[in-house]
Amino acid sequence: MSDETDLTSIDEEGGVADQTAEIEAAMAEARARLADVSAEVVVANHVMGLYELAAIHLSSPTPDMVSASLAIDSMAMLVDGLGNRLGDDAAAMSDALVNIRMAFVAIKSQTGQSSPDDD
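Given the sequence above, the corresponding structure tokens read:
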């Protein structure tokens, strides 16, 4: 039996077609839920995700300064670039950026590692 025959028989039984329909329905539901959330909230979640990513790289047994720097710089582009457009959480995100930058500098000095900006 060829792979094409296998797929055709699965499709004829409704397996693949049913899975595809379920996936499409789930994606449509996710899009509808996301459309109900303000852009401020979605962007804030991404900012905090970048904060967490930087913290993970900084807190590993051997800190990954390059990856942490990329996450921090990405976070800064959003926080500094958007400023008060981030809404009520703008000040908290700005404080988080300052804190993760201070952690980066402290870990860099403790470990003696360089960062991409040192080149």
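The chain has a mean pLDDT of 86. Try to locate this feature in the token string yourself.
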